[in-house]
Amino acid sequence: MPPKSYLFFKRYNGDLRTMPSYIESLNASGVKVVNAHPNNPQKHNLPAITATIILIDPRTGTPTAIMGGAWITAMRTGASGAIATKYLGRRNSRVLALVGAGVQAVTQLRCIEAVLPSLEEVRVWSRTAKTIKRFLKLVNRQYEHKFVPCEDVKTCVQGADVVSTQTPSETPIVKNDWISPGAHINAIGADAPGKQELDPALLKRAKIVVDDMEQATHSGDVNVPLSQGLLTKEEIYGELGEVIIGTKPGRSSDEEITIFDSTGLSLQDVSAAVKAYKKTKAAKLGRWVTL
Questions:
Q1: What was the pLDDT predicted at 282?
Q2: What does pLDDT average to in each consecutive run of 10 residues of the chain (291 residues)?
Q3: Interatomic CA distance for residues 199 and 27, integer angstroms
Q4: CA gap 175, 202 in Å, rounded
Q5: What are the residues whose beta carbons fall under 8 Å from the beta carbon of 242, sequence distance 6 or more?
Q6: Is the domain covering 73-265 a CATH 3.40.50.2300 domain?
Q7: Where are the domains of the chain?
């Protein structure tokens, strides 16, 4: 899995990414072509993220499926945040703060809720009241947690046990002083060079775990502090996979601050796409399946 590659459309405040990978154990390969255009909803009434996944047979190199990838992208990203929360967050976490209230906030909530049985309160902030209102209308029908709309980021994250950030910001919006000891943060939004959501001082204070070291250092939340000399690669603790398989310990104490720097991996896209493809084939044969 090479790092994702980019085309930047600065004139339109957008980019296009290609993400290939080969999973030998599944005998599967594929590539996702995905864009990020944050202004789409306001200017064009289009999603900020659109994606297409092409599955390719490794034996012959021929395409076996072409499918929409936006929902797979949203769900696998939410799932990665949940897995990081499971291994790095405190087990008794009660308060989740969502910084950004778009599609990714919905899937972060959906997946994190599954690994936090003690979750009671969900705070949410967005740049626009309209986005918060749309988010609350959707989730209030599905969950019984207490939902709290917040007027600013500080109110949203201060005292929260788990924080999930999913914005396209290129300047830090979560300040070091606002984060309490013991908090876990899923930094989701910084997924391209130049993006960052977290105060570099907060990164210096925390245990940083990335999804992929090579990709994160050029496009994750750590990319700007690294380029500015405010952070070194040696200060990045390791990859989430290392924590999951036990080669590196996860959280060391209830007071430790942990950060998962997520950039999104093609391996996740292809493995999810393979599952969707197999279920679709089964459905066409007349067997009942649930996606």
A1: 82
A2: 93 94 96 93 89 97 94 95 97 96 95 96 95 93 92 97 96 97 96 93 97 94 96 97 97 97 96 93 64 50
A3: 41
A4: 7
A5: 248
A6: no
A7: 5-71+267-284, 73-265
Catalytic residue among 4, 32, 195, 207: 32
Q: Tokens 């996606």 correspond to what residue? A: 291
| Alpha carbon distance 5, 238 (integer Å) | 22
CATH homologous superfamily of 5-71+267-284: ornithine cyclodeaminase, domain 1 (3.30.1780.10)
**With contact defined as beta carbons under 8 Å apart, do 262 and 19 qualify?**
no
Residue 32: CB partners within 8 Å, gap ≥ 6? 17, 18, 19, 51, 52, 53, 54, 69, 73, 266, 269, 270
Model pLDDT, residue 286: 52
Rounded to the nearest angstrom, the gap between the alpha carbon of residue 132 and the centroid of all alpha carbons in its chain is 19
Mean pLDDT across the chain, nearest whole number? 94
Q: What is the pLDDT of residue 48?
A: 87
Q: Is 32 a catalytic residue?
A: yes
Specify the pTM.
0.91
Distance CA 168, CA 38 (A): 7
pLDDT in tens, 72-107: 999 999 999 999 999 999 999 999 999 999 999 999
Phi/psi for 166 (5° steps) reads -140, 65
Question: 59 to each of 21, 63, 213, 290, how far by Cα in Å?
Answer: 14, 11, 29, 29
Tokens standing for 6?
């980019």
